[in-house]
Amino acid sequence: MKPKDKYEIISEMAKRRGYFWPSYEIYGGVSGFLTFGPLGSLLKRRLEDKFRRFYIRPLGILEIETSIIMPGKVLEASGHVESFKEPTVECLKCQHKFRADHLLQEFGEMSDTETEKLTLQAVVEEIKNRNIHCPECGGDFSKAEQFMTMFTTTIGPYSDSVGYGRPEAAQGIFVEFKRIHESARGKLPLGVVQIGHALRNEISPRQGPVRLREFTIIDIEFFLDPENTKCERLHEVENDTLRLITAENKLNGVTEPIEVTVKEALNKGIIKKEWQAYFMALAKRFLVELGVPEDKQRFIEKLEWERAHYSVQGFDQEVYLERWGWTEVSGHNYRTDYDLSRHMKFSGVDLTAFKETENEGGKRFIPHVVEPSFGLDRLVYVALEYAYTKKKKRTLLSLSRELAPLQMGVFPLVSKDGLPEKAKEVYQMLINEGFTVEWDESGSIGRRYARADEVGTPLGVTVDYQTLEDGTVTLRDRDTWKQVRSKIENLPELLHDYFRNKIDFEGLGQLVER
Amino acid sequence: MKPKDKYEIISEMAKRRGYFWPSYEIYGGVSGFLTFGPLGSLLKRRLEDKFRRFYIRPLGILEIETSIIMPGKVLEASGHVESFKEPTVECLKCQHKFRADHLLQEFGEMSDTETEKLTLQAVVEEIKNRNIHCPECGGDFSKAEQFMTMFTTTIGPYSDSVGYGRPEAAQGIFVEFKRIHESARGKLPLGVVQIGHALRNEISPRQGPVRLREFTIIDIEFFLDPENTKCERLHEVENDTLRLITAENKLNGVTEPIEVTVKEALNKGIIKKEWQAYFMALAKRFLVELGVPEDKQRFIEKLEWERAHYSVQGFDQEVYLERWGWTEVSGHNYRTDYDLSRHMKFSGVDLTAFKETENEGGKRFIPHVVEPSFGLDRLVYVALEYAYTKKKKRTLLSLSRELAPLQMGVFPLVSKDGLPEKAKEVYQMLINEGFTVEWDESGSIGRRYARADEVGTPLGVTVDYQTLEDGTVTLRDRDTWKQVRSKIENLPELLHDYFRNKIDFEGLGQLVER
C-alpha cells in the first residue's frame, strides 16, 4: 500500500476536526467547492488579518468591498468575456467533458508552457497524435471548443441583462477607481485592495483546496504615475534575495532558479518595475512567516503567451507542495493602464489622474497598475502542510501563535472534586479576555493534550488539585511539551504578552521539573 | 425645496468621503448593488467583529464558511426553488416589469400584510380594481407571473447542472450539519454561524442600502434537542423589556407595541421558545450598542401567511429610519426540524443527533433550530443614521470608539518648521501600534478637524510648536471639541486603554483651557 502523502493526512484530519472538507458531501459532493469548518474559518480569518497587518496597513493601502455578481459590460470592457476561456473536448462515447490542455499535460507529457501556446486546432491534433482517449471510458474526443469559465447569470427580470460571477476582485476596484481616488483627494501612488470570494467555472476541478470554483482572492491594485514609478520603500527589501526562473531561462529549458537580490533583479532589468519587485519581496517574506522556508519558494516568469491578456510582465510565486509539486500562491502582474483605459473607452467616463507640472501647469494621465494577487484558500492549505510534523508518532500542527485557530485548551485534570467547576471559571475568564479557548474534559489528560496538538493549539491550561490549594494552573507548550505553573490572576496579562510575541513560553511561569 | 432627509445627507457624505455608494456608476449604475469604500469597509468589518464579540463568542457559537454558489438540489430540498418567488407584472406598453405587491403597496394603499395574503389571480384583480397603471408610461399590465428571485447559473460545462446564488447563508450550515456536529463531538445545543454574501435577484430594487441584490447576511442556526429547549442563559436577560407587536394585535389593527419583559413574554406564550426570546433580547441590546434607543426599536410578529415557508413562529426586529419608517434589521424564526428533515429526505443521509436516555439506552432525533438572522449592510446604515448629528452647523458623526473606522487623525499644525516631519513620526508610531490613523496636512487646522468630525474620527492628534519643545501633542475630542495635552511616549498605552473603553477622554492628558 502506498503510504499516505501529506495532503491525504491533512485532509483526513481537516475533515475530522473541522478545518475544511469538500462541500455538499451529503448530496454526493460538487467538485470545486470547499467548506471551512469552525477551525478552518478561524485560521482563514487569522491569516487574512495577518495579511492586513503585514501587507496592507503599513503601506496605507485602502480596502474596499464590491459585489461578486457583476454586470456583463464590466467584464466585456475588461476583456474577460472575450479571453476568459479554456479549451474543452467532449468524449463522443460517454459525453464527459475535459479541459483539453489538462489532458495533454496529464497523458501527453506536455508542459503547461507548451499547451498554453496551442491554438484550438492544434490542441485537437496533439490529442490525436498522442493517442489520448477518454480517461473515463476510453472513447474518442469531439473537436475542441472554447468554454467560458465565468459563471453566467441574469440580473433582474430581463433576460438580456447578463451578469457574471467575478473571476477576480480586481475589476471591482478598477470600475470604482474614480470615486476612491477622489475620496483619497487625488493621491498617487494609491493602493487599493479587495479580499473576497471570486468564481471560476472550472471544467472538472479535482485538486481539493488548490483548484476551486469558488475561492477567496486578495487583489491589490497599486496605481502609479507611469512617469514616476519609483518605490520609496525599496530600501526595506533591496538586499532580500529572490529565487527566480526568468522567461528566458524557461525557454532555454533551465528549471533551476537563479538567486538574485531585489536590487540586482531591478538593475539587470529582470523585474521591470520597482514596486513590482517590492511586492514580490514582501510576498516572499509573508510566506516565510507562514512557515515556508526560502528554498521551498520561487518566482517563475510568465512567457508572453502564458500571461493574462492584461499583463505585460508577470511572475507567479510558487510554493512546493508534496502532492502537487510547485504550486502558484500569488501572481505579480504589471497591468499597465490596460484596465483603466478599457473602462474609460467602454464607459465614456474620464478615469485619469491629474498632476501639477512645471511648464504646462498640469497634466492628466491614466495611472498604471502593479498588481500582487493572492489565493487565500491555498495559503490556508500551505500553512497547514508546512505546520504538519510528527513527534513520538504523534501528529503535531506547529502553527504560529498568530495563526493557530484555538489559542488554548482548558482541561480539568479529572471530572470530579470540584475541578471542572474551577476550570469552567478559568475558561470563562479567558473567553471574556477575548481569547479563543476550547473546553475539553473527556478522556485522559494525555488524550486531551494529543487532540490539542493535532489541531495546533499552542497552550494547554490544566486545572489540578494544586489549583484548589494555591490558585495556580499548569500551562503546557504544544511543541516542547514542557510545562510551567502560573497564578490564575496573572494569566490575562501573561497570555496577552505571549500571543503578542512579547514573551516566550518560559516567561509564562515557573518551569515544572518532570 | 424639500429639505434633505437624513438618508440624502448621509448618502451624499458617504459617496464623497468613501463610506458607500451605488456600484457601477461609470456604467450608469445597476440597482441593488452597493460598494463599500475604504471607510465603509472598515466600519462594516468593525461592526462584524463587534457582533462576534457580543453575540457569537460568549455563547461558544461556531463560525463556518461555505460557498455562495449552491447546487440546485440543495435549494430544491430547502424549498427555495418552489417558494422563493415574487409576483411580477409587465407593462404591456413599455415592457417594464414590476413587483406586483410593491405596486399595490405604493399606489394601492395596501399594507404588506394584506398583499402577502393575495393569490396571483387576486393580485391582478386588485391592480385592476385600484386602477393602477405603469408608473413609467401609464400603460396597462399583463397578467401576473411568479418570478423566482434567486440568481440562476450552471455549474461546470454541463447545461443540466443548475446552480443558484444562495439566498441565505443558513442552507450552507444545514447541509454541513453532520460534519460540524461530529467535529463538535455530538454537542447540543450547538450554535453555528455564517457571515457572508447572499444574493436575491430583486425585480426592481430602489432603496439604497436597504434593499440589495447582493448583501451580507449573518445567519445563526442554533440546534436544540426539541425535548429540552431550556435556555440556561435566560436569567441574563429575563428582566429586559421588549416592545412587541403580536400577530394577534396586528390582525386587530393595533399598531402600538406592548412592552413586556422577556420573562412575561415567555410566560404568556407570546414567544414560544426560550432561546428565541434570549436571542431577541440580545438583538435589542446589540442595537442599543449601535446607538439605536429602545423606543426606536420594536419586534413585529409575522402572521401565518407572512412567514417564510420554514418558519412556525417569526419576529422581525425593526428600527425606525427617517426615510423608510420601520425597517427590518433582523429576523428571529423558529425553523423547527424543517430544514434538517428535508435534507435528510432529499439526500438520504442520516442527520439525526443522539442522546442517552434512562430506559432505552439512547435515542436518535432531529434537532430543532432557532434562527436569529441579521442584515449587515442595513446595520451599517443604521449605525450611520443614528450617529449623525449637528453641532454649530457642522456635521458630526458620533460613532462609538469601537465602530469609528478611523481612530484618529494626525495633523501638523502648519506645513513648515519641521512640524510635518515630527507629525509623520507620530503617525508612523501609531500605525505600528495597530491603530487606524489618517494623515491630513491640507488646509487650516479647523478645516481638518471638521473633515474628521464629518466621518466620525474620535480623536485628533495635533503636532504644534510646543511639541518640538517638550514632546507633547494635543488630543482633541470629536464630540466635545475639548483638548488635552499628552506626552508622545505615553500615547500608545493611553490610546489602547481609551479604545478599549478603560479610560475616558479626560484620562488621556492635561486639559487645555481655552
Structure description:
The structure is a homodimer of 514-residue chains. Chain A is of the alpha+beta class. Chain A folds into three domains: 6-80 and 150-386, Bira Bifunctional Protein, Domain 2 (BirA Bifunctional Protein, domain 2, 2-Layer Sandwich); 89-148, Herpes Virus-1 (2-Layer Sandwich), CATH 3.30.40; 406-511, Anticodon-binding domain (Rossmann fold). Chain A has 18 helices and 27 strands. In chain A, a hairpin with a 6-residue loop joins strand 5 (85-90) and strand 6. In chain A, helix 2 (38-56) packs across helix 14 (376-387) and helix 5 (100-107) packs parallel to helix 7 (120-129). Chain A is globular and about 75 Å long. The model of chain A has no long low-confidence stretch (mean pLDDT 95). Chains A and B meet through helix 1, strand 2, helix 2, strand 3 and strand 4 of A and helix 1, strand 2, helix 2, strand 3 and strand 4 of B.
